[in-house]
């Protein structure tokens, strides 16, 4: 059964992201250049967290006469708050990263795709709010929008949350600075290769 290991890995990444966020560090940047995609999501997540905290308090009051139900609901509510905090942390500490030979495309703790620069046939700014999800396309919207489109010269294998393989030739993603990402990828594609160390 692949579902349970996938869920455990995902939850572990969320907790690790939360630890990195508290320590003000980011994951997997190395010598690359980071491009965030979570700007503007803080207020939305804060709203969700506020609602969850209010719901936790309300349920504690309503279930105070049923201790077993109260404990179960309290654990679930606290886990939900932790999950939402970890999700926002993952958005923040796991940005897209441009290396000298590849673009690492990420979305929170569940997408981490390495695209070699030589496979990028075209990159452009393309704001979109609708995504049909046809075969060969990978859409990674944030707040229901993408801002950068990559067209690939050949397929790249993307593995879904549960491990199913999909070959993609078009990737749409969001970046807080789409123009900067497009320009950086364009420059990196035309730069001479870095000799091995």
From TrEMBL:
Transmembrane annotation, as ranges: 44-63, 72-91
User: Which keywords, in A-to-Z order, does the entry hold?
Assistant: Membrane, Transmembrane, Transmembrane helix
Q: Tell me if Transmembrane is a UniProt keyword of this record.
A: yes
Its name, as the record gives it, is Integral membrane protein
């Amino acid at each position: 059964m692949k579902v349970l290991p996938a869920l455990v890995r995902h939850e572990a990444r969320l907790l690790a992201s939360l630890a990195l966020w508290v320590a003000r560090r980011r994951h997997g940047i190395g010598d690359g250049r980071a491009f965030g995609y979570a700007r503007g999501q803080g207020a939305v997540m804060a709203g969700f967290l506020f609602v969850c905290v209010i719901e936790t308090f309300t349920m504690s009051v309503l279930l105070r006469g049923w201790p077993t139900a109260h404990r179960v609901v309290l654990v679930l509510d606290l886990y939900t708050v932790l999950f939402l905090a970890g999700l926002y942390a993952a958005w923040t500490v796991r940005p897209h990263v441009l290396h000298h030979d590849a673009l690492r495309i990420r979305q929170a703790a569940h997408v981490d795709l390495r695209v070699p620069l030589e496979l990028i046939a075209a990159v452009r700014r393309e704001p979109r709010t609708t995504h049909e999800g046809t075969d060969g396309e990978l859409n990674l919207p944030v707040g229901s929008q993408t801002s950068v489109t990559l067209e690939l010269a050949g397929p790249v294998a993307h593995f879904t949350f549960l491990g199913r393989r999909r070959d993609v030739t078009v990737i749409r993603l969001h970046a807080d600075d789409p123009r900067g990402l497009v320009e950086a990828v364009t420059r990196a594609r035309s730069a001479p290769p870095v000799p091995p160390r």
